[in-house]
Amino acid sequence: MNGRVVPVLTAESAEDAERVCRAILAGGLASVEITFRTAAAAEAIRRAVRLEGLEVGAGTVLSTSQLDAAIDAGATFAVAPSTDSTVVRAAKAAGIEFVPGAATPTEIGQAQALGCRVVKLFPAALIGGPAFIKAMSPVFPDLRFVPTGGVNLDNLAEYLRLPSVAACGGTWICEPALIRDGRFDEVERRAREASALMLT
Fold first, then answer.
1. Domain boundaries in the chain?
2. Is pTM beyond 0.70 here?
3. Which of 55, 120, 175, 188 is catalytic?
4. What is the arithmetic mean of pLDDT over 122-143?
């Protein structure tokens, strides 16, 4: 996962996903997480990886079969909202970067015990936002975090200022309503806003 802001995309069709990914690139962002919440996920990843300059990962990877499908489609990283030891070990064996999810210190510790060095915090806003990360960082100094869930333009800069934040997952950039309405121009605008914040 290279970019510090990673749009989280849930698309009903691979065609929509490709158009969103083009808008994300045009807006200055270079990473996307395509979630396995729809049947279109694998084909959407296949299309997205063909776009030059875009790093494509798979999200909501809850099983080894989804992990295999993501790898087969060309994803270079995978993310989950929880920590499943079987999936973590399978990802390590496959050599793909895997970011498991956690919402408590115990879950963060479990991910660390499995050898993970980057952990997704989800749902970030509901578990305490930046204040939670500030509290966890001294306890887990070797870990970096990817807050997702409730991250938006209003609080993005606060998250990005935290040294332990590797990246932020951004569902607001390409929310489903924009895709349904064909508002790819708005996706690009939001991506451009997020990109500008990364430079400040």
1. 5-198
2. yes
3. 120
4. 98
